[in-house]
Amino acid sequence: MIDSRIFKANDIRGVVTGLSPEWDLAGAHAIGIAAAEVLGIADGNGALVLGRDMRTTSPEFAAAFADGVLSRGGNVIDIGLASTDELWFASGHLDLPGVMFTASHNPGNYNGAKFCHAQARPMQPAELVAIRDRALALSDEPSEPAATPGRLTQRDLLPAYAEHLHSLVDLSGIRRLKVVVDAGNGMGGLTTPAVLGSANLELIGLYLDLDGGFPNHPPNPLEPANLVDAQAAVREHGADLAVVFDGDADRCFVIDERGEVVSPSAITALIAVRELARDPGGAIVINKITSQSVPKLVSAAGGRTVITRVGHTFVKAAMAEHGAVFGGEHSAHFYFRDFWGADTGMLAALHVLAAVGTTTEPLSALVEQYTHFAASGEINSTVADVEPVLAQLEQQFAGRAVPDRVDGLTLTGDGWWVNVRPSNTEPLLRLNVEAPTAAEVDALRDEALAIIRA
């Protein structure tokens, strides 16, 4: 059983438990068959690498998917429990397409899958549509199994993943840092000891045990309520900073020594300047929601900025097209040329630790130079019919702002902007506002929300 709505713009996500599941094990098996065919590995023509997160349904869904691939003669290299960025690493390291079973930050009753081609190259939306259509067709026309089934092998790539990250950012010379790590019972609980355990760090772990029921807080650091525990732990222990991962640990939020959340745009600027020091004149990719501080700082550092739509498919494509050294999104996805253009929260964390560990300044003082504007953060609202709301917002701000529809609706005024866009994965309308002062942000936010939530 597959509800076609589980196929999102960039991946698959849907409810798998409870009274109204949107896909099941038979559906995962059919998607495995379809993926083998679309990726061109059926009938003994190749292999894919498969990873999964700690959700209670991930072992059986990943196994059903693998059985589908094997039945069509495709080979599967199973790396077992992994973060999504470890799966991207495996795809690049082994030069194979990859599939990661995860629903990222969604609640525990969800599961999903993220796909990539060899070298962690993104799957195009049309290819995901092809997988969807083929999987749905299999309920009416079952696939004939291959004459020779594929082969399943297991590999542990966690040590190689950690070694690769350390080859990109060396922490051996940093001063001793006290660091809170909140894994939210997600895959950061597996990768943190492997990557950070050998560094000159005193680690204070929060919720490092893997638990797909997420008993402590939802694995979504975009929601401020899910950062409270890490903020409190920084203050309680006098830590230098905290890093907070989402469920599949491909995103990383940072909290400074005061317990204040550091804007992902400031982290983007910090890492961009570090990477441009290695590659003068390089390109930096950002999305429409990133602070206008970033292009200014990139230009001052001798780099050039490429702006794209929100979403890893668009950012990765822009990274490849422009040979960009680094990319950052407002949602705390950070992309690196030296990581096959893919996103990795752990490598971003290493950059922040290296930056703090090689100065005597606290993190709050360090990031001050990268923060020139006030921002609202992302504010989500459930909206049944999006287009009339966007039209009304455009009318409300007519004469004060220039509209564009590159990604949702962006209204750009004198030193400020308002962006409203529908989520790719959830039935939500997302609002972001930036302006020179907090008071201007609050006024613009309230004006927009009055229409969005009317």
TrEMBL record:
Residues 378-448 form the Alpha-D-phosphohexomutase C-terminal domain. Its EC number is 5.4.2.8. Pfam families: PGM_PMM_I (PF02878), PGM_PMM_II (PF02879), PGM_PMM_III (PF02880), PGM_PMM_IV (PF00408). One of its GO terms (molecular function) is phosphomannomutase activity. Residues 5-135, 160-259, 266-371 form the Alpha-D-phosphohexomutase alpha/beta/alpha domain. Gene3D superfamilies: Alpha-D-Glucose-1,6-Bisphosphate, subunit A, domain 3, Alpha-D-phosphohexomutase, C-terminal domain. GO terms for biological process: carbohydrate metabolic process. Its cofactor is Mg(2+). Keywords: Isomerase, Magnesium, Metal-binding, Phosphoprotein. Belongs to the phosphohexose mutase family. This is Phosphomannomutase. The gene is pmm.
